[in-house]
Every structure is written in C-alpha cells, then in structure tokens.
Amino acid sequence: MDLIELKRIQEPLKEKYRTNPDTALITLRANSHCGEGVTCKIETGKMMAEAGLHPATGGDGLSVCSGDMLLEALAACAGVTLKAVATSINFSLQDAHIQVEGDLDFRGTLSVDRNAPVGFKDIRLRFQLDTDEPQEKIETLIKLTERYCVVYQTLIKANTVSVSIN
Q1: pTM for the structure as a whole
Q2: Mind listing the pLDDT tens digit for each residue in 50-76?
Q3: Is the CB of residue 71 less than 8 Å from the CB of residue 78?
Q4: By residue range, what is the domain housing residue 94?
Q5: Number of C-alpha atoms within 13 angstroms, CB side, residue 56?
Q6: Pairing label, strands 95-104, 48-52
C-alpha cells in the first residue's frame, strides 16, 4: 500500500471522526470459554485458539500462553503501526523486524512469594529496520509509532479495568 491508497482509505474515516467524534469510539471485544483441564478457548476473530498455563506454571506447552499473546499483540500492533506511519511520512522501509520481550517472575502468579509481582516487570520493544533513511527520520518514525500504537499506549498508561459477575 502506498501513501495515496492509505490516504484514500483513511481520509473519509478521519473526516467522519472530525465531524462526529462519537463515531470514533468503538468497543472492541474478546471472548473466551473455559475448556478442558486448565485451558480456555479464545475467539480471535480469525480462528479459535486454546490458551493454557505456561510451562513455568505447570502447562504442557501445547496451548498458547496469555503472556505470550500480550507480547505478540504488542509486536503485531507495533509492526502494523510502523508500516502505516512509514507509509504516511513517505519513509523508505525495505524491511523491519519487531522483537518484544517481557520479564515475568513466576513466583508471584504461583503464590510462592507474596512480594513477587504478578505480571510483567519489564517489557522491551526493539525495532530492526532495513532502511537508508537518515537517523533523524528513523527517530521520527519510531516516535510516531510509539505515539499511535494502541497496544503500546495501553501498556504504558494506567487504565481502569472493571470486573463484574453476571
């Protein structure tokens, strides 16, 4: 997709959101259903996935791990955002690899140590770019990718998460 095609697709949406801001607020949903053993079936929109315990918590490694899925969501969002931004700013990008790593202390989730955190302690997002663009333009690309990546922004900001029982 080139800049002209991207603008052709996005401009009507941008105009719609400018003139009627309420139409820009869309609720995304995810659903799961408990499966056999300690698993959960996830409707991904494209296929069903079965999530289970990470091997470090007793899982067999045959099911996807929700922690991995979180990192994969960040890698996917960062990659798509990077490509969209590169297209928008006419950035010459031959190829890009996005790597995401996160550190977990499994003592927390297994209740081995009440002082050990539950969840990722640190997450690292790395870009490997194949480009001839100058450093200044590369820095702009990454800055804009960080700014517009939904998953990245969600992770770095405190958010309200409500829990209810029906």
Answers
A1: 0.90
A2: 999 999 999 998 999 999 999 999 999
A3: no
A4: 65-158
A5: 13
A6: unpaired
| Half-sphere exposure of residue 108: CA atoms within 13 angstroms, side-chain side | 10
The DSSP string of 71-91 is HHHHHHHHHHHHHHHHHHTT-
Beta carbons within 8 Å of 31's beta carbon, 6+ residues apart: 42, 43
What secondary structure letter does DSSP report for 64?
A: B
Asked if the structure places residue 93 within a domain, the reply is yes
Contacts of 145 (CB under 8 A, 6+ apart): 78, 81, 82, 85, 127, 152
Could you tell me which residues are beta bridge partners of residue 126?
Answer: 99
Q: Is residue 14 part of a domain?
A: no
Q: Looking at the structure, do residues 82 and 133 belong to the same domain, yes or no?
A: yes
Pairing type for strands 31-34 and 48-52 reads unpaired
Tokens representing 90 are 């006419």
User: pLDDT value at position 43?
Assistant: 85
Residue 110 has what DSSP assignment? T
Q: How far apart are CA 50 and CA 92, in angstroms?
A: 38
